[in-house]
Amino acid sequence: MLSSIGIPGLILILVIALIIFGPKKLPEIGRAFGRTLTEFKSATKELVSDDDKEEENNPELTTVEKKQDKSVVS
Question: To which protein family does this belong (predicted)?
Answer without folding.
Answer: Belongs to the TatA/E family.
